Amino acid sequence: MLRFFLYSFVCLSLLTFNSSFSDPQDIYRPSNEWPVVIADGWFSAKTYTIGKYQASSKTNGSNRTSIFRTFPSAKNVFHYQLTSNASEYLITYGTVASISIDEKTLPKYLHSKHTGNADFFYAELIDQKDTSRPHWEMIIRKPHYLSLNKNNITGTLRSGNRSFMISAHNKFSFTNSYEKTCYEFKSKKKILAAVMLDKQPKVWVEEGLDSYESQVFAAAVSSLLQQ
Fold first, then answer.
1. What sign has the CA pseudo-torsion 88, 66, 72, 118?
2. Is residue 1 pLDDT above 70, yes or no?
């Protein structure tokens, strides 16, 4: 009997989740999904492709011009290239202490009264093909499972006066779970991109975006796949 009720609960949860993504404008429709192919051989470094973008193997540390040079306490820092026929990004990511970033420059939801002294996941995205373009940075605090249950805002992707909010949910898994965490990139209430982290991850990017925005989201998503 208990097994029956558990099965019924899971089915109902999945139906509820699927119905919440039935809007034809939703990011999770098949036409927005980019294929993710992971190459992880016995004698070769892990690499992957996201749609038309190819990630190189990662290298320990940051390059000489990276902003990570100003974060002496940064941990687990790596950099790699993400390339396509039309773009080439240098991406550096790692864990940065919240006190390393001027709180006045952060959106309120990343202030210490909301995050405590939690470390941030930080990624720097540099367009190497068009050096006139500004650098982008992504700052994310690790979400708690209660936050995942509610799809709360947990980070920002920004450059100059442009920014996108990042929320995270566990709706591809179960309540109170960290499995299959999914990050959504939003402009106001519109979801423009999403990535679900798993052994076989999934990526969605709004098909109507211009090529530059698609490149930026591809770079941001790729750094999350490196975790």
1. negative
2. no
